[in-house]
Structure formats: structure tokens, C-alpha cells
Amino acid sequence: MDQRLYQLGLHLTPGLGGVLIRYLIAHFGDAQKVFEANFKTLIRVTGVGEALARTILQKEGLRSAESELQKLAKINAGVVFYTDVVFPQRLKSLYDAPVLLYTKGSIDFNTGRFVSLVGTRKATDYGRNITEQIVEGLLNHGVTIVSGLAYGIDISAHRASVRSRIPTIGVMATGIDVVYPDSHSKTAIEMEANGGIVTEYCMGTKPDPMRFPARNRIIAGLSDAVIVVESAKRGGGLLTAEFANNYNRDVFAVPGNLSNPYSIGPNNLISANKAQIFTGVENLLESLSWLSDKSSEKNALPEHFTLEESQIVSLLRQKGEMHIDSLSWESQVSTGKLATLLLNLELQGYVRSLPGKRYTLG
């Protein structure tokens, strides 16, 4: 059977979360072998008790996956698993990243730059105008716009991207077949030609307030930078900014009129040093070192690098230095193979070994 069936089967198995799925894949090597394992072997895996082992052996998740794949095929949607080459590299190193994403459209997660535009659902004319100006200003800079397909700032960002023919991705807190709000369905379809929609939730999942915070972590994790345009004192945009700060992403906030209740959030982020002040697209590009081609040349990896070598160097760029076990976990490369790759990179001068099996860039 297709490995995709088993991967989706793990995702749909009751009681299995992202951490346990990663443990199982690390232990058995792939998803199919998890379902082929016996009871005694399963309970040896960290975090898998007798009850969960029995649940896996009942293969309820596998049966659900068969039905799910049929439904996905009917709407021309698919799934990407965290071990796939096309899975977002920006998410792979995050401790709370989803192990699987449902996708619909023409999405390339790993090419170019990603900027998230977020904010209140009750956007003012000022907020909508600023959002459109930002999107238009990012044209020709290789940027994909990410947002949540909600009312207000989100939909303004997506619609401006469609008009400017800039790739845009909508991250949803519902199933891939349930666009919320329904009035944004037309825009979601238009986005598919140059971007599309993604979610971690199974088909048919309805909107639930509890799922939106989890959705916001994906918006933050997919991004190189997050811009909070407008927000009240509390709001989803501020939560996205908090996730972004935790993930070491750049956060910007658009300053606003002190009498506007939807400027309180961005103004507070700036005053608390939790966001850089956004004064224009050029300010953004300069802060991110995106104005000069020298930056992209400096960060470019040699063409002869394998995917695994590129992934190792990218992880070390993000973290500074890492233990070989952490590198193995986040890259999903076995420690034996990883040791060989690291030695090869060290001989080429790209990586330097440190005491205690730690590594950093050369």
C-alpha cells in the first residue's frame, strides 16, 4: 500500500499526537512498520502504553485514512507528511509543529520568502489600506503572503495578493473542505492558482474557537516575518506574534492612532519591545536584509549539497550550535548517517565540531 495511507493513518489514530508519531517513526523507520508491529514491540516505544498500543493494533486510524484519501481525491486536495521533502522546512525544527498538513492548490513551501500579515477581524479602512500597501510593496521581492482567511486584515491580505499575483497561503482552523467563513470560499478558490489553503485538521472539521490558537502557531511557523497590522488589546494577531517571538521569527507592528482601539495591540507590542515598528516596506526589507542580493548569495547553499546536507546547515544557521542527537531528531536522519554527513561537511569547511558531540557552522 501507499506509504501515504499509513502516514495519514497515524495522524487519524485516536490518542496519537505529534510527539508520539515522531517517536514511532524514529523507532520503526516508517509509518507502515508501525502498523505491522506487534503489541510487545509497540509498548517499548517511549510514551506508548498498553491502551494506546491496542488502539494502534485495532487499525481504526488506517480505516479512517482510506476513506479520507478518497474524499481528498474528489476535491483535488492532498497531504504532506513531516518526512516529505516538500513539507515546510520552516516547520520541521519547531517543537510543536504538525506532523501532517492537508493542502489544496499550488503551494511551494520551501521557495522564496514568507511574510504573515495578521490582525483584527474588525479592520478599519486604515488597516485595510496599510495591508494592501504592504502586499503591493512586496511585489517582485519573491515573497509569499501567509494569513488565516478570516475577516478583516486576513482576507484583505489574501485578496490584495490575488490582485497583485503574489503567492498567498491561507492557514485554516477547519477541514480543507470547510472554508470559514463561507463568504471567503471564492477567494480561497482564486488563491489555488498561485498558492492555496492548508490545515492540520481532518476533512469535515467545523470551526471551533479552541482550534484557532493552534492555527496561529502554523501561521507564525511558516513565516520569516510576522506583521501585526491592527489588533485590540487581546486578539489572535497578538497570539501569532507571541508564537513568532518564541520561534525566533522577526515581528513587526504597524503603529496606529492612540484613539483607535484596534491600534492598542500593535502599539503595545512596540512599547514592550516585542515587535519592531513598521514604517514602510523598505524598512521591512532592510531589517530582514532582503534589499541586497549579497544577502541571498551569502545564504545560498552549494548546488552539490544533498537535501540532507542542506537541511543540516539550515538547522545550524537557525540554532547556532546543536548536539548530534538534536540534529538527528529535527532532521529525521539517523545518528549513524548523520555522523558521516557531518564529517563530510566538516572536511569541506562548512561545519565545525565542538566538545560533547555538538556542532556549529564552520
TrEMBL record:
Location of the Smf/DprA SLOG domain: 79-288
Domain (DprA winged helix): residue spans on this chain: 303-357
Listed InterPro entries: DprA, DprA_WH, DrpA_SLOG, RuvA_2-like, WH-like_DNA-bd_sf
A GO biological-process term: DNA-mediated transformation
Superkingdom, natural source: Bacteria
Pfam family, one: WHD_DprA
Family: Belongs to the DprA/Smf family.
Name of the featured protein: DNA protecting protein DprA
